[in-house]
Design a protein that fits this description.
Length: about 425
């Protein structure tokens, strides 16, 4: 019985709260605005960044925790001084790759890559800024490159430095308008004026942060050394059979390269950079964490301002309804009943604002995803967080006005004008 009575009282309080909000529509809207802006900004940013996190992680972790690289310079250089220091290192050569393949016990696959950019043409069509990579055959397995049409070159073709290639799907669109992956196999393209026969087309990798990963030409490693120059530093890619061997293999490779460069125990610089794609992911996550904090700062300000507005509106409401409070107390309402009534009104406003903010935030995230190609990841946790924060703001901002109303004397309240 007591529970039913409490539920009935809460229901009546909620109905009164809704009636009060409908009676002052402009005031309610202005009260909601700060809450909506704060919650919507958090929801939109969390939704977009969560989708980007998932996409970037899957894009740069296609080999899982089983592959890493050895190069002259690290993947990311943050200062001019570091660039000068790394440029003084010895080049990574094919002999280094052979030594790793021969001496590293935990290394499963060892591949070599040379990277460049080039102008690619076919007939009257051209594509600039195309990634041109020279790869040894193990690289196709290390980087999980799938061939959707045609084939890769053979050991004999690669060893002979033949002018053959595997292309990405962007080149079909740019150089063979209306063509299909199957129809371009066997055709010829020119990379910086040099003719190459298309042996195969790679399955699409898709986009990351709006940038396509399918604008490339893969050519044999030996062919690339003739094209770019055999003296340029290469990148060696290593894969282990199991993630449990990852760190051991990295240590082995680091030791091999230090020995080949005559490094002693006191030398801090290994002479090469041994790192995985986690370096990219770490930098990306550091960048997005800064965006998170900035967004939460803006949202916090919006919610504080919204809370202050709610408190002021509730104080005005208490003043306007002083006689109502006095009448309710005169007929037996307790302080707890008055406190509950005004708290429910404050919380109803902010929770409703939070719910609207969640919807607006998701709508903004989806709009940006359509306009800019960003992925989105809808999370029930972010929606729950938005509504919960709104509830807390309403509770905190409505407590003082509700307590002030609860303390009113029935006689003084009834005489108030």
């Amino acid at each position: 019985m007591r529970l039913a009575a409490n539920i009935r009282v809460l229901s009546e309080s909620f109905k009164l709260a809704l009636w009060s909000l409908r009676s002052h529509k402009l005031r309610t809207f202005l009260t909601l605005l700060g809450i909506i802006v704060g919650v919507a900004s958090v929801i939109a940013v969390m939704t977009i960044i969560s989708g980007l996190d998932q996409t970037v992680s899957s894009a740069f972790s296609s080999q899982g925790s089983t592959a890493f690289s050895v190069s002259k310079r690290p993947l990311v250089i943050t200062s001019r001084e570091d660039m000068i220091k790394f440029n003084k290192r010895r080049d990574v050569t094919r002999e280094d790759a052979d030594a790793i393949a021969r001496l590293c016990r935990d290394c499963w696959r060892v591949g070599m890559a040379v990277n460049g950019m080039g102008l690619v043409k076919h007939a009257d069509n051209r594509s600039e800024g195309v990634s041109v990579r020279g790869l040894s055959l193990p690289m196709f397995e290390i980087e999980n490159v799938a061939i959707q049409n045609g084939r890769v070159w053979t050991e004999a073709e690669g060893g002979a430095g033949r002018n053959v290639c595997v292309i990405g799907t962007d080149l079909i669109e740019n150089l063979f308008p209306g063509g299909s992956a199957d129809s371009v196999v066997g055709d010829e393209i020119r990379v910086d004026g040099v003719p190459y026969k298309i042996l195969g087309v790679a399955a699409p990798f898709g986009k990351v942060l709006g940038f396509s990963r399918d604008n490339f030409v893969y050519i044999p490693f030996q062919t690339a050394q003739k094209m770019f120059g055999a003296r340029d530093s290469i990148t060696v890619h290593i894969q282990v059979r199991d993630a449990s061997l990852f760190e051991t293999a990295k240590d082995e490779v680091r030791t091999i390269m230090r020995n080949r460069r005559g490094k002693t125990f006191g030398d801090e610089d290994d002479g090469v950079s041994v790192e995985s794609q986690d370096a990219f992911i770490g930098i990306y996550q550091n960048a997005t964490s800064g965006i998170y904090f900035a967004t939460f700062g803006v949202a916090a300000i919006s919610l504080v301002v919204g809370g202050i507005v709610v408190m002021n509106i509730m104080l005005v409401s208490v003043t306007e309804r002083t006689k109502e409070v006095g009448l309710r107390k005169a007929v037996g309402a307790r302080r707890a009943d008055i406190l509950q009534q005004f708290l429910i009104e404050a919380v109803t406003v902010t929770v409703f604002g939070g719910a609207v903010g969640v919807v607006v935030g998701y709508g903004l995230a989806f709009t940006l995803s359509l306009l800019m190609g960003f992925p989105v990841l809808v999370s029930a946790q972010s929606a729950f967080l938005g509504v919960t924060v709104s509830f807390v703001v309403g509770l905190a901002s409505g407590l003082y006005p509700a307590w002030r109303a609860a303390l009113l004397s029935p006689i003084d309240a009834m005489r108030a004008e």
